[in-house]
Amino acid sequence: MTNIIFYLAAGVAILSTFMVITRLNAVHALLYLIVSLLSVALIFFILGAPFAAALEVIIYAGAIMILFIFVIMMLNLGPPAIEKERLLLKPGMWLGPGLLAAILLIELVLILTGPGSATKAAEVPPRAVGLTLFGPYVLGVELASILLLAGLVGAFHLARKERND
Amino acid sequence: MMSQLLSYLSLPLVHLILSLVVILAFLGVNGIVLIYVERKVAGFIQRRPGPYEVGPWGLLQPLADALKLLSKQLVTPMGADKILFWAAPILSFAPVVICFMPMPVSPMFTGMEMNLGLILILAFTSLNVLALCLAGWSSNNKYSLLGAARAVSQSVAYEIPLLITVLAIAFQTGSLNLSEIVASQTKGIWSWNIFVQPIAFIIYIIAVTAETNRAPFDLPEAESELTAGFHTEYAGMHFGLFFLAEYSYMIVVCAVATVLFLGGWHGPFLSGPFWFILKTYALILVLMWFRWTFPRVRFDQLLNICWKWLIPLSLINLVLTALLVKIVR
Description:
heterodimer; A: 165 residues; mainly alpha; 0% strand; B: 329 residues
């Protein structure tokens, strides 16, 4: 049962990610990205990490993607942008990224087929996530928060009104 | 026969499907009841009788409204993104069904017991704004787009104090499981979180009024400036679904407030579900009272309330809660 759900979710994730890349309309592409993120959240849930799944829905699908859509909506690019996108999707453009992605794919297959591949974990409760984050990985959390603070200050600087005096 | 049926009930999948069906039926009935209540409350506050022509005391008015919406033609405007235009009302209503699953209506009756209930509800209520955004964009109408833009900036802003205050309650209880949060408030009325955390309660109520786009914070659909905001182009049952979704979100946030602040199913004499529903609808009446007594705020005022008052206040509340929890334990 869980295997079927896993493969369904994985299939939806791959298909929708493919659609993200090939859609010409930016809003449609972002919607496919949201579908992809939701199916990844489902995969997290099946693998026994419901907390990560819920955070994926809140933060990625619920907040970040909606801000992306908001910005693109406000720009309201229209048909000229779609034409430009069509030019970018010419086969010649695919060569470089395709090559790099192929190398990554080979690496991934080698890792997955090698010894000691990932096994199904037990369910991780939110308490365990918190204890791990603020126990052994507290330095990482602090570094991430410093990065966020820097981002916040930068955004404030960019959005500030220039005073002419 | 009966015992066989009951044994089927204990299967998880059957339990899940049955809960979903019960929730859907409840949401439909709830929508009809709330339309009537809202119109009557509005009438009493404005010193007029409210609906009274259709049926005794106007009781059949919401049914007549629903029939009218059902019989209307569904119009798709020219230049609209057809698929998204049709999908947006459904997307607005669908996530709300999941929000009821972890709700502890009584000590025995919960759709789905899980230790992440609170986070799950917050995750799926935050998806509503996506639907409003799509509705506004796909309508190909400037008023719709403006309404959607307002909906996004408002709901993203008010989600922050909402999450932080809910976090304070989770700190205090030490759990994200809604049943455990209720269980921690069963030591008499003074153990209810509304008395333990009054600031959190006030912030929560203000934030959810903005999250559900209710007046005085109903700027995404401000009819005096934006026609009808994001649902300007929607007719018939499309509009009806948005309406139903708004009332459903109202009852979700009020039920969560009941669980977090008013002791959930806890109360004397009557059994759990009665108290739960009584408290939830009392909170809904408070939201309606807000709507008909406060004038609509301006948009910059709305964002200032959030960024300059609610977020700092909720952060102070969080730090105080953390300190007190550390001292008491």
